[in-house]
Amino acid sequence: MYGSGTQLTKQQQQQQQQQQQQQQQQQQQQQQQQQQQQQQQQQQQQQQQQQQQQQQQQQQQQQQQQQQQQQQQQQQLQQQLVRIKGRKLLCTKMAGSSETC
Q1: Full-prediction pTM beyond 0.70?
Q2: Nearest of 89, 35, 54 to residue 62 by alpha carbon
Q3: C-alpha 54 chain-centroid distance
Q4: CA-to-CA distance for 55 and 63, rounded, in angstroms?
């Protein structure tokens, strides 16, 4: 009687230990799932950051293009001014300072 009683308590203890181990495993699985979710969130954030960087790069490229266009316009204006000045100088040399072309 005494021997069989101790065997039962041992079995119960083993079952309790197994249950505790299962609970620990479940907790570990939950933690892993949470970590995976966090990783996914981080990946999404990284993707969003990459998209923002791409948008910023595109904006910078557009700004550079606008600057280039402005520079070209300024160059054209300067060329026109030089031509006008050149014509005036030619006129004054050809006709004399008193007459206007």
Answers
A1: no
A2: 54
A3: 6
A4: 12
Is the pLDDT at 58 greater than 90? The verdict is yes
Tokens of 63: 């700004």
Say how far apart CA 59 and CA 38 lie, in whole Å: 31
More confident: 13 or 4: 13
Q: Is-contact 101 95, C-beta < 8 A?
A: yes
50-57 long-range contacts, CB within 8 A, separation 24+: none
What type of residue sits at position 83? R
Residue 78's Cβ-side half-sphere holds a number of Cα atoms within 13 Å equal to: 6
Measured CA to CA, the distance from residue 37 to residue 56 in angstroms comes to 28
Per-residue buried b or exposed e for 60-99, using 16+ beta carbons within 10 Å of the residue's own CB: eeeeeeeeeeeeeeeeeeeeeeeeeeeeeeeeeeeeeeee
